[in-house]
């Protein structure tokens, strides 16, 4: 009787403290996770061309005991374990059109393509979490939905999966969680912004029309290069003078294309703009301002026709981290990793289509930032005021072991926090 009671106490303690059990599972799997990371890094694929990567994720999920399906070019794994909530854990499949310059032995073998945004880290961490959850079904009840989405880098993969029935053909999640690496936090730590976490984004193209001619006779032309210069400067007032200064927004003209030779005034100039904010009303107001300012500057210049202003595709929604879920996950991760390893962050103006699962689909969700920088190098860089290679850099390299281990542990523990208890 006493032995049975003692065993019950031990089982209860183990169920109440899942972190050691999950940490042990991640440790057992770690050599395979590192090998997988290096394999994925060597063979990156661009958005909506991730056939090899998707097949590999499907194969590994099936091997871990998940029922595997497909949606919108992505992979979906389902693991049911009795009644309880459903949690979605997301990773991304695609890489960037970047020529790698990192010099690591496992560098990309695909010319001009690199996992410069850490999606290879995400996939390996995601698989580690899937294996840990499958191995320790005694710790939870409910359903785990593993989602590997394509085309995050062009902001279309999440919507493609939703349009192809992700939330109707598979169990609808009660919660959604993802991680994303950052070079601004030390490896072994995680961070999160409660509420708005990442901005929405629109890409805007403007074609400004002039009347070309000889560069020595500008009086016989309408110079669209000068018109473009005036337009770029005027557009900055849309942010500085036309919106509530308490509402963040960024308007960046990323490219100007026009002309062919020193002494030729061209007929047209094209501008490409990225526009970011959190509030949809702010975003809509800024797009209206871009249209009005471009038209006004063209009229002031005597342009022969109105400019063409095109918003390229759908707005990528902002990422909203559910505050209540942030509190739960932050507390759980603080207990497991240590309170000094969990940071509260400010919102970031970069963008992510994870918002399609949360903001757009109405699912409480959190996107956690996963520290990927070597702690010593990060400290030295901060002291010197010289940042380490960031995401999208051809020289970005994560501090591998602590980053992968922490990523897998973080995703698994986040799932266990919201799943039902045995």
Automatic annotation (TrEMBL):
Coiled-coil region list: none
Keywords: Hydrolase, Manganese, Metal-binding
Binding of Mn(2+), residues: 117, 119, 153, 180, 392
Keyword Manganese (UniProt): yes
Domain (Peptidase M20 dimerisation): residue spans on this chain: 203-296
Gene3D superfamilies named in the record: 3.30.70.360, Zn peptidases (3.40.630.10)
Cofactor: Mn(2+)
Domain of life: Bacteria
Signal peptide: none
Cofactor binding summary note: The Mn(2+) ion enhances activity.
Keyword Metal-binding: yes
One function term, GO molecular function aspect: N-acetyldiaminopimelate deacetylase activity
Pfam families, per database record: M20_dimer, Peptidase_M20
A Gene Ontology BP annotation from the UniProt entry: diaminopimelate biosynthetic process
InterPro entries hit by this protein: Amidohydrolase (IPR017439), Bact_exopeptidase_dim_dom (IPR036264), Peptidase_M20 (IPR002933), Peptidase_M20_dimer (IPR011650)
Protein name listed in UniProt: Amidohydrolase
Originating species: Mesoterricola sediminis
